[in-house]
Amino acid sequence: MSKKKKMTKTLMAATVAASVMAVSNPASAATYASAEKAVVKAEKLAGALKWEVSIEYRKTKYPNNLVGYPNMKMHNEVKALLADARKQVAGLKGKEKEVLSARLDANVATYLNRSVAYIDAVSSGLKIQKKYNELKAKAAKGEVDDQTEKLYHEVSWEIKKNAFMLDRVYGVTTREEFRDFYKHSAENQLKDLLYPISIKMQIDRAEKALKDNKPELAAGYLGNVEFLIKEAAKNGLKESNPLIKSSLSELEKTEKEFSKHGTLYVADSKDADKPSVFGPASGSESSKSIYLYAGENEHIKLQNVSINGNLTVLGSPKGAGTVHLENVKVNKVNNSGGAIIVEDIAEHSLYMKGVEADSLVINDANGSNLVADTGVKVKNLVVSENAGAKGKVNLESKESGSFETVTIAAKGGEDSEGIALKGNFSETAIEVTGENAVLAIGEGTEVKEINIKAASQISVAKGAVVKEVKKDSSVKGEVEIDNKGTVEKADEGIEVGGNKPGEVTKPGEGTVTPPAGGGGSTPGIVVPVLEEVYVHLNTASPIHDDSNGVINLTGIQDSVKFTRVAIDTKGTASKFVLTSLKARGSDTDWVGKDIEYDISNDAHITTGELFGSLDSGNDGITLSNLRAVFANKDLILEGYLQSPTGGKKDVSFTIKFGPNTGTPATSFTNDYGTITKKGLDGNRHKVEVVINPSKSGVKLGAIQSNDKISFTKLIMSFAADSINFTPDEMSNNSGQLEDAIADRFLEGLLNDVTLGELVGKTFTTDDFIVEFK
């Protein structure tokens, strides 16, 4: 064979071998080189993009656009180069693929992700800036009107919704520049407008309250205006400031309208010896209803006035003041008025001399100190259910006959320090109706009688004298008296520790129990017999209790409605008295006071009667909603049956809801409106709340007080029902909703926000979007 033919065969063999190698090893040198070239190209441009989102670089390159968008063409090119390089690297194997992938992550994806966060921050910042610029323009003109208020809330909303994107920008100095430019400037504008907007809102609320014929609400709002004017002045915004002047533009008209209903006196003195004085120095003048407004550490005095209506004492959002009444008469006219109403007052409180009124009602939850000096004549003093819930109520009478009766409806609670009596109540009948009330009779105090109508604890100090203590037959629970003084008479059934009563008396109407051993009952007294209890649903058959008094609704579909409870006694009872309604494990009692039902064979208690405003009163409540409100816990009802002859039988039964089942209701209507689940909006659940127009004037604080449930918690408990949220997550969303509402209004006045003011506004939490209509 010639050398030429031999060389040809050798080249052909090498070519075939190379072809075989290429087929068997896709990661050829050429493929790797191409991939590496793509990586290098992406790295080079990403390195340039890195500086586009750095504030140090931008100060030189873009001095007039420090926090604007980066070079978007460059950004998009890096994005495309990264995608191409990843595609090529994906075709490699082993160490080569691993090394190039790591380079793309570290040198390209990192800077692209920073650029994405930067771009998002610019977009979010511009949304804040757009509304801020509009608000800034209004402020610059000194205009505080409806549009300014709307923009104020919109800027606040945009900050809350978008500011978190600014915090995602890479680099401390770059991030701070974003916050200063987009967020802090807008927040400073909101701060400058806080008092002008808040003043305007209070005037608007007063105007609406007057249209709704609620002058007592208007008085509080107008008092808040005076409070806010003072607070603004402390922060450098005098009444001459254009923004303050503009916010007060409607005040004179509103005050003129308010004057048709009564007179508002606002304290201005912080000197206890020189209070702000209203009323003539001598003689007497007549007036319509009067409202006294005193803030923290302020002192006010009303003298020589005869009021045809009510006298109401109010405090500011940051605290209340001290009030003196001297030679003041509050008259009932046409069966209306005649009351002194204490809504908020300082711990130094209310001093009265020469005061006459039909009633005096204390509502202040933070506690109070009431002193009746000489010449005080009040028919009934009422310590309401909420009074002293977070403090102590001191009542002092220096003369006998200052009060004909004192009604203590305040309940004992963890934060309450109880009610204390001091002085001369020798002609006064004390009535205790608040469950677990705590009453202290001070040293040297004399009390005519105490009528107990609820479980309570009473202490009688050394030297104090209580002539008689009576216990009503309806009382369920312990009545305990720690007696270190003198109790002359006490009904049997009252546990008296320390000094024993001089005489133990029979209650006027007591429980009659058949003697042990079947000896029969007292002649003529019939003890009621409870046959059964059952729950009516909007289905064919009611659910009856078992031998343990448990009505088991476990397994019944969420969409089924609970309409009423029936108690069957087969004619042995004339009435059923409901004394307590609690969810197992909760101290919240939904029965504010005993509820009586006249019955023949059975008592039917509707859901409207049981749950008040939480039920629309139309056709019951779905089990889904009840499970949500009571967190799937058993509901325990307690009370007693009363026969026509005086016999009584205590009864207690339990309603077991069980867990959710079936398809929960998507809409829940109660007295305040309708809550509807609207499905997902992005990654959040949307909730629509349509407010009942007739309840637009109801305050958030009043709902908490009346129904013992936060309105935000009610929304969240229903909205989160059937969604896998833990109780902590539900509570967190509820708190965020409350914070979001507080952001729209002056935080200290949150409880004064009415349902109507929420209409047209949308609030966002981590997991929910809540839209009010």
Could you please describe the fold and organization of this structure?
- The structure is a single chain.
- Helices cover 34% and strands 29% of the residues.
- With 773 residues, the chain is α/β, with parallel strands linked by helices.
- Among the domains are: 265-505; 532-656, Immunoglobulin-like (Sandwich), CATH 2.60.40.1220; 667-772, no CATH class.
- It is globular, with a radius of gyration of 37 Å.
Q: What's the helix and strand layout?
A:
Elements: H1 3-24, H2 29-52, H3 55-61, H4 72-89, H5 94-140, H6 146-166, H7 172-211, H8 215-234, H9 242-247, H10 251-258, E1 262-266, E2 276-278, E3 285-287, E4 289-294, E5 299-308, E6 311-315, E7 322-333, E8 336-337, E9 339-342, E10 350-362, E11 368-372, E12 377-383, E13 393-397, E14 403-408, E15 419-432, E16 437-441, E17 446-452, E18 456-460, E19 465-471, E20 479-483, E21 486-491, E22 495-498, E23 503-505, E24 532-537, E25 543-544, E26 550-552, E27 561-568, E28 575-583, E29 595-598, E30 602-606, H11 607-611, E31 621-622, H12 623-629, E32 635-642, E33 648-656, E34 667-670, E35 673-681, E36 684-691, H13 700-707, H14 711-719, H15 727-744, H16 755-758, E37 762-764, E38 768-772
Parallel strand pairs: 1-4, 2-5, 3-5, 4-6, 5-7, 6-9, 7-10, 9-10, 10-11, 10-12, 11-13, 12-14, 13-15, 14-15, 15-16, 15-17, 16-18, 17-19, 18-20, 19-21, 20-22, 21-23, 26-33, 36-38
Antiparallel strand pairs: 7-8, 24-25, 24-27, 27-30, 27-31, 28-29, 28-32, 32-33, 34-35, 35-36, 37-38
